């Protein structure tokens, strides 16, 4: 299968553009295709189409919306192989991971489609003769901006959430990894959403967001990406009085308690850290390990991590693909050099692979100083930082001592430890004894610099609605 021709989708019509820039395959550094840039007229046309479609889509029966969305999910699943191969080409992840991403997108659409039928309001008791009810209403047109790491699964949350709630949407997909967003929009268009309910644009991100967000017809902004861009877009949305859902970065702690099995946790950690080459906002990064199991854990983690084969995503022997772009490669090199200069010990990895493409091995650093930059910034790559602790309260305080609060992980069989961790760790999701921190049926998102708003679960859909209180004196 060859890489698809990337197009914009404006009001249900697929089109290209005279301005196009290259799309690079990170496994080889070679060009994979071309990205069409939307013009200002395209953006305005997409907005007009979304406004027009909202009039019918918001009034379509939830059960009918569900039927169309379930059809889109089925279409996506049927196209798994082609979609996955295109994602491998522009994003770099392994074919296995790309297939999982399609499956994740499918599951998210299924959940949101069904949950759209359950956007309940409520009756609020009042004095005799006065009936009070609270109803939920879609905000209207959503402007969505999604990143390159999960080019299909990330936009799915926004498109499926918005549509299930009765909103329409303009999606700016990731310019470096556009095939996933295009496949998603194609599935919805082919499933029969009204023309203009889902629009797809690409281009220079800042130009698109600065153009769309101030428009009065855009009623909600949703963004997944870095903290600086999230703060910028949140401020822009606030200036124009638009609510925003911001899913930003993380630097997830993993607390390994004294009762955990070093071997078991090390194996799970290597697999979790290798996922998407560590370019995941919930990637486990700072490992705080009780001193009683520290040495065996570091040894086992190093051994397991060095077993992770790195190579092109379409090579069946690869467990981890290249980094998605040269920026990440340079960033990881700089984080590793900085940590080593502050006394960190390289357990495994620590040096880019000498071959074309953005290859960096899974890297475990031990005895990492608290002031190493990677301990407080988001490395967003295959880098695990391990340090010992003696007292759980101290480990929790150190885990919380960053500006991020997205996901956290812990390993313990002690109910007392688990309760303390659940109470005291600052995060939007805590996974105890496993590494899955986001599922379609539960809310996901962060606090502090990791952003606000939730995706998934009941809360995810509610975020695309506002409440109206209707009181009726009889
Ligand atoms: P970046 O912040 O410039 O870009 C991240 C994403 O934001 C890109 O997809 C880009 O299209 C979009 N973007 C950038 N500026 C924008 C704007 N003005 N308006 C709208 N969209 C805009 O940086 P990057 O080099 O691509 O990634 C660097 C960092 O971003 C990573 O280190 C990581 O911390 C973070 N990141 C987080 C996630 C996540 O899932 N939370 C995803 C990707 C990147």
UniProtKB/TrEMBL annotation:
It is an enzyme of class 1 (oxidoreductase). It comes from Terricaulis silvestris. Belongs to the aldehyde dehydrogenase family. GO terms for molecular function: 2,5-dioxovalerate dehydrogenase (NADP+) activity; succinate-semialdehyde dehydrogenase (NAD+) activity. The active site is at residue 247. This is Alpha-ketoglutaric semialdehyde dehydrogenase. One of its GO terms (biological process) is gamma-aminobutyric acid catabolic process. Its EC number is 1.2.1.26. Keywords: Oxidoreductase. Residues 17-470 form the Aldehyde dehydrogenase domain. It comes from the Bacteria. It holds the Pfam family Aldedh. Gene3D superfamilies: Aldehyde Dehydrogenase, Chain A, domain 1, Aldehyde Dehydrogenase, Chain A, domain 2.
């Amino acid at each position: 299968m060859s890489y698809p021709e990337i197009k914009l989708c404006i009001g249900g019509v697929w089109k290209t553009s005279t301005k196009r820039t290259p799309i690079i395959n990170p496994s080889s550094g070679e060009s994979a295709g071309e990205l069409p840039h939307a013009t200002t007229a395209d953006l305005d046309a997409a907005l007009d189409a979304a406004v027009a479609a909202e009039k019918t889509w918001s009034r379509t029966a939830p059960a009918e919306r569900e039927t169309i969305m379930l059809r889109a999910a089925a279409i996506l699943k049927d196209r798994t192989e082609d979609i996955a191969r295109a994602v491998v080409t522009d994003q770099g992840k392994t074919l296995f991971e790309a297939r999982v991403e399609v499956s994740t997108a499918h599951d998210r659409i299924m959940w949101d489609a069904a949950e759209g039928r359950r956007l309940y309001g409520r009756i609020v008791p009042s004095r005799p003769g006065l009936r009070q009810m609270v109803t939920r209403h879609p905000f209207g047109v959503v402007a969505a901006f999604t990143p390159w790491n999960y080019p299909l699964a990330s936009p799915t949350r926004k498109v499926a959430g918005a549509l299930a709630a009765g909103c329409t949407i303009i999606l700016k997909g990731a310019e470096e990894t556009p095939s996933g967003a295009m496949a998603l929009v194609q599935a919805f268009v082919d499933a029969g959403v009204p023309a203009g309910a889902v629009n797809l644009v690409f281009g220079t991100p800042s130009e698109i967001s600065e153009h769309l967000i101030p428009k009065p017809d855009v009623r909600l902004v949703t963004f997944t990406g870095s903290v600086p861009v999230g703060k910028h877009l949140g401020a822009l949305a606030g200036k124009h009085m638009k609510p925003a859902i911001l899913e930003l970065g993380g630097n997830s702690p993993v607390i390994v308690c004294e009762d955990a099995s070093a071997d078991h946790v090390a194996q799970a950690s290597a697999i979790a850290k290798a996922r998407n080459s560590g370019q995941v906002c919930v990637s486990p990064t700072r490992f705080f390990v009780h001193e009683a199991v520290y040495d065996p854990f570091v040894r086992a983690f190093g051994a397991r991590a060095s077993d992770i084969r790195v190579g092109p995503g379409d090579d069946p022997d690869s467990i981890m693909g290249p980094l998605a772009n040269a920026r990440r490669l340079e960033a990881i090199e700089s984080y590793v050099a900085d940590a080593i200069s502050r006394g960190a010990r390289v357990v495994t990895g620590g040096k880019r692979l000498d071959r074309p493409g953005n290859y960096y091995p899974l890297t475990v650093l031990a005895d990492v100083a608290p002031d190493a930059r990677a301990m407080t910034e988001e490395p967003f790559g295959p880098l695990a930082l391990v340090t010992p602790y003696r007292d759980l309260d101290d480990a929790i305080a150190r885990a919380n001592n960053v500006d991020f609060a997205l996901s956290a992980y812990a390993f313990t069989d002690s109910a007392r430890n688990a309760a303390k961790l659940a109470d005291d760790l600052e995060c939007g999701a805590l996974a105890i004894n496993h590494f899955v921190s986001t599922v379609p049926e539960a809310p996901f998102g962060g606090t502090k610099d990791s952003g606000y708003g939730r995706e998934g679960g009941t809360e995810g859909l509610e975020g695309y609605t506002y409440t109206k209180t209707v009181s009726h004196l009889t």
